[in-house]
Structure formats: structure tokens, C-alpha cells
Amino acid sequence: RKERPVADEETVQKLIAALETQSMKYEVYFKLVLATGMRRGEACGLRWSDIDFDNSLLSIRRSLTSIPGQGQVFSTPKTKRSRRCIKIEPDAVELLRDYRRYQTEERFKVGSRWPREIEIMGKMAENDLLFTTWDGHPIDPGSVSSWFPGFLREHGLPPVRFHSLRHTNASLLIAAHVPVVTVAGRLG
Fold first, then answer.
1. Long-range contacts at 8-15 (CB < 8 A, ≥ 24 apart)
2. What is the Cα gyration radius of the chain?
3. Which residues of the chain have pLDDT under 50?
């Protein structure tokens, strides 16, 4: 098997700086993936009700997948251990607070075109998705992946695959002497 390239600390710092020049949605999405090691569908499936701001916890309860002919479909995470809570750093909590304010402003601009409810695993639920299209619909996980290579080229960053950010998160945690069992638990 071919080894997947991971970004080193210097590249991660450049990536983070470059993300700060992008739309807030992409900045928050990719910083959160880097900070948590989430899969792209897990990040796309996040709802505000999954964030415990008081205890700095993020719960992964579902994943969003794009299925031809059906569109975006919510499902349970990839494995049993993929349903998990992840402790997030104070700067990530603050970034999420800022993003929530930003998204609320965007939602008011769109008005009644923003759907109040969405179907999640066969049930109607409040539309409190973190990452949406401009008009509040679930974002296609593939659109995030297809945006990423152009962003890297534009900023002169090495060409790493989106999924490599998950491996980068694991490598950085291990380099910081976080026990491997803890790293595995965070990644689900």
C-alpha cells in the first residue's frame, strides 16, 4: 500500500494562515477537521446541537453522504466507534462561536429560502447544520473535497488529499505524546 502524505507542522501553520483568507465556512470547516481528525462526511453532518460550548465538546452522531439519484443522505457514522465525543480546544470553541454569529447573519440575508427543517435519517429535524450551501441546504461532501486542491495550488501548498488531514491530525497528536489509544478514540 502506498503511504499517504501528511502535512508537517510548518505546512499546517501555512495552511491555517491561508485558510484565514477564505470564506468563514471553509476556514471553520478545515480548521475543525485539522483539530479533530473528523472524516469529511462527519464534518458535513454536524449540527449546532452537537456542540457543547460549556464543556468544549463536539459530538459526532451522523455522517452526510452524497448518493447519486438521492442527493445528500444522513446516516450513522462509519463504524460503531465513530460515534464519539471529542474535546476541543478553547480557540476552536471561540472560532465556532464566531462562525455561529456569522451563519445567523447569513441565514437572515437568505430569509424564507433557508429551510427550517431537514430530513435526517428518516425524520424531520430542525435545520441547525453547521455547514450548508448558501441557502441553508446540506452541503455536498464532494464539493468540499473538490475545492481543496485548487485552494492548495492557489496558496503554493503541497498537494495533500483531503483525507490526509485526518492522518495529519493523528501524526501531530502522536508527536505531542498523546497516547495512541487516545488518538484512535478521537479518530473513531
1. 9/172, 9/175, 11/157, 11/158, 11/160, 12/168, 12/172, 14/155, 14/157, 15/155, 15/157
2. 16
3. none
Neighbouring-strand partners of residue 132: 138
Model-level pTM?
A: 0.86
Provide the 8-state DSSP code for 67: E
For residue 118, which of 44, 187, 16, 186 has the smallest C-alpha distance? 44
Please report the pLDDT score of residue 160 as a whole number. 81
Rounded CA gap, 168 and 174, in Å?
A: 10
Which amino acid would we find at residue 90? Answer: P
Query: What are 36's three cell numbers?
Result: 479533530
Cα-flanking dihedrals φ and ψ of residue 50, to 5°? -85, -5
Instruction: For residue 157, give every residue at least 6 positions away whose Cβ sits within 8 Å of its Cβ, in sequence order, or none.
Output: 11, 14, 15, 18, 151
Name which of 178, 142, 134 is nearest 68 in CA terms. Answer: 142
Distance in angstroms (rounded) separating the CA atoms of residues 165 and 37:
7
